[in-house]
What we know:
Elements: H1 2-34, H2 39-66
Helix pairs in contact: 1-2
Amino acid sequence: MNALRKILGIIWIVIGVSAGIYLIYFQAVPLWKTGGNDLVPAIIYTFILAPIISLGMSVFGYYAWQGDYSTKDGEKL
Length: 77
């Protein structure tokens, strides 16, 4: 089970980076280009949602990969 947690940790890191790229490249950049009233969602995607989502998921995956959520001798942490 601990090996599965480590593998899933790497997957969480990849998902976190992918989510950040998606939010900035596919959501925010087209809104920045159109301008006008679309600037507010672009600012929210770029400066609020992308860092929170990508960093949160990546840090969670890093801790899982490092074994911080692992159990030892059947103990619950």
